Amino acid sequence: MCSGGFAKCLGITLIPLAILCILCNILLFFPGGLPADKKDHITDEVFYCGGILGSGVLMIFPALVFLGLKNNDCCGCCGNESCGKRFAMFTSIIFAGVGLVGAGYSCIVSAVAINHGPKCESNSTFTFPFENGNYLSDHGLWAKCEGPDRIVPWHLTLFSLLLIMGLVQVLLCAFQVINGLIGTICGDCCGCCGGEGAV
């Protein structure tokens, strides 16, 4: 497969992942699926917007760049027919780096949130009743959260999804860094000028 075609496949995969990450982060603003009574009833890590900014907005730009690489036809500069394609592939490495930073940020926020646990009502006050992820292996501790209903599985499920999707995005962007390096050094095997210039 051409390096541009491979990048397009990555872009097609990253777009829905970015949208899902944004949706997961938005849902976290509704503890247990219900509107929060007060802003300070929402888990702190939700406001870091790892899914909205990191795996969402910052991932849209690389995805769009990757989608456009297959159709890039900026050929012929300095007498070299393939340098336009090579420059486009080099640029994709930079955008893949942006994606790596965004997805990495989302992964870190999600991992911290999972370890920290949800903010919930415990002994009539909103606090973080869990320490160092102890609730992950002991479901009996979940009873410490008196409200909102289903807050622990809600928190755990959505942040786990953000973590998994963030890791997939990191992997895909890392693939594009390698693909971009190959495209920069070797050119696109289906270069827009390579086949046409020979005719």
What can be said about this structure in brief?
It is found in: Membrane. With 199 residues, this protein is mainly alpha-helical.
Describe this structure in words.
With 199 residues, this protein is mainly α. It has one domain. It is 62% helix and 3% strand. The protein has 6 helices and 2 strands; from the N terminus they run H-H-H-E-E-H-H-H. It has helices at 3-27, 50-69, 83-116, 134-137, 151-186, 194-197, and strands spanning 120-122, 125-127. A two-stranded antiparallel ribbon has the order 1-2. Helix 1 (3-27) runs antiparallel to helix 2 and helix 2 (50-69) packs parallel to helix 5 (151-186). The radius of gyration is 22 Å and the shape is elongated. It starts with a helix and ends with a helix. The relative contact order is 0.21. Residues 73-81 and 191-199 have low confidence and may be disordered.
